[in-house]
TrEMBL record:
Protein name as it appears in the record: Phosphoenolpyruvate guanylyltransferase
Enzyme Commission designation: 2.7.7.105
This protein's encoding gene: fbiD
First-level EC class: transferase
Catalytic reactions on record: phosphoenolpyruvate + GTP + H(+) = enolpyruvoyl-2-diphospho-5'-guanosine + diphosphate
Keywords: GTP-binding, Nucleotide-binding, Nucleotidyltransferase, Transferase
Molecular functions per Gene Ontology: GTP binding; phospholactate guanylyltransferase activity
GO biological processes: F420-0 metabolic process
Function: Guanylyltransferase that catalyzes the activation of phosphoenolpyruvate (PEP) as enolpyruvoyl-2-diphospho-5'-guanosine, via the condensation of PEP with GTP. It is involved in the biosynthesis of coenzyme F420, a hydride carrier cofactor.
Amino acid sequence: MGHRALIPVKHLSAVKTRLSRHLTPEQRSTLVLDMLHRVIDALHASQALESISVVSADSEVLERARCWGAHGLQEEQPGHNEALAVAAHHAINHGADTLLTLSADLPLLCGQDVRAMIEQSETHQIVLAPSRDGTGTNALLARPPLVVPYVFGVNSLQHYIAQARSYQLSYMLYRSLGTELDIDTLEDLMLYWSYDHCETLAKG
């Protein structure tokens, strides 16, 4: 099976605006790049993917992604979901049978999360990883790619579930700390730092 991953990243000038009261633009950019690096490392660690692609309109993001072993795809279509659809067609044209589309801000993601979602895709056409508040979607694994259109945004989880039911597709929800904790608010950031600190102490 051609398992591939796709990570959308906004232009660094527009990232994490909800943290603008607490972090400078440079700090927000650094945070996003650090999280992207962690996500790419987790995808590599899964040893379950044929390729990893990052789609962005930001040349620095694409350059960093290539340095970290991912393909950099220039965003060709304005709009988050529209750009993802173009990138997904690119993946299909290069042999993708299964496509994992996930957020770049999942710093606690691990290879086991990726393997578990891929294993679930053997019996389900759609695997969804909900956000911590249960309304958003932090990862979507589709078999085949674009079996449902992209609808990332407000209340996307319910939209994806409604699509799966409408198209009579088998779906399941995958939950773990690594897929649930995306970083949008100061509370999210503090929670991430607390887990990251504990992990560092555990490693000695």
